[in-house]
Description:
lipoyl, alpha+beta, Glycine cleavage system protein H, Single_hybrid_motif, 7-stranded antiparallel sheet, GCV_H
Amino acid sequence: MAVVRGCNLPDDLLYDVDNNIWYRENADGTVTLGMTMVATGMAGQLVAYTPKRVGKTVESGKSCATVESGKWVGPAKIAFEAEVVETNELLNGSPKLANTDPYGQGWMLRVRPADWAAAKATLTPGSAVAGPYEAKMVADAFAGCAAA
Length: 148
């Protein structure tokens, strides 16, 4: 697992570094996604999570959910076109799960990509994510998760 400035970035995931979103392939052809530890570290304690509804198709680069913390309200942007097939009801009731367990119970959505092969080619594998994240943290003047 890559650890950049105190932020864990598991090797088995794919990342959209620009938007601080992680992706996990599922055996049934769907993809689970959530906010990275970097995203939750920058945002602070989450207080609200409003996903797009099941059945909704979300275009590449558009919001698949709105997240809110004490310091920030904004979109979680998906890296590819996909249909929402499941939302995390547990996260609806307890948004702080995204802070305490971002890669487990804090996942946001399961989606069915329109073209996963093309989408996957645009994402950064966990084994190669440390360098891009270090550069992003420098650019964003983010000290890291331990300092968040």
